Amino acid sequence: MKKASFAVFTLFMTLAALFQAPDVHADSAAIANGSSSINSACGVTESDLMAIKTIQGNTSLSYADELQQELAARRNLLSKTIQCAKTGAEQDKTAIDNSKVSSNLESLKNQWSDKLNSAISYYDLQLQKINDTGISGTEAIAREVFTWRQNNYAPLAENVSNFIMWSDNQGLFTTAQNRLAQINNLTDSALFSQNADVQNDYEEAAVSLKTAEDQNAAAQNAFAQSLAPDQTLSLIKKSLDSLSSTYQHFFDVSNLIQSLLPH
User: Per the confidence metrics, is the pTM higher than 0.70?
Assistant: First the structure.
């Protein structure tokens, strides 16, 4: 997702340079950087990026021919760019739709899917405008879509990515809960129930897992409240860090139990 998003971001930045450049020499760096950074899946080639500059620099063209050809090149590049953005949104929607979540999270999952569907519809609407717009109109559409994407789609896509990662992590917590239950059965046995070291190690593991679960639940609440992506990602990372500590405690208590078993 992030790689595709960067490709589209680069495309829109390049469009801004192309559509607003006052002469054929301006913003060549943006064009060069754009052509080297764009994902080929977008269908935009270096010739697409250079077409407008080439037309503007062709002194053999009449003013009317230059305008006509430049408009066609602008429309082509803008269409490909928005189509690329739409394809990315469709891929994100497929990813969220295919993610496996528990029944109590289906509603939240569907909310993300609906938002992505609205984004796809937005891109379709912008695509429909292109063939009826002129030179200044192509610039206006590019600017509008770029601003909308940065303010609306970018945080949505990041949260969708975070949600999928979070949902994939739930199996790790289930495994940890099962592991803690297994260790509890051992620590409650007659052989270890009175051993203070064993009991302390078990309690540390239990507390660590509880912390991880609380942070995991906080991440779920953050999604439900549509908090900023960096906030949800931070909570996910904290929960995984705590879960890692939990497994270290599992390792410690298992080693201690092994050392106390009769040889």
Answer: yes
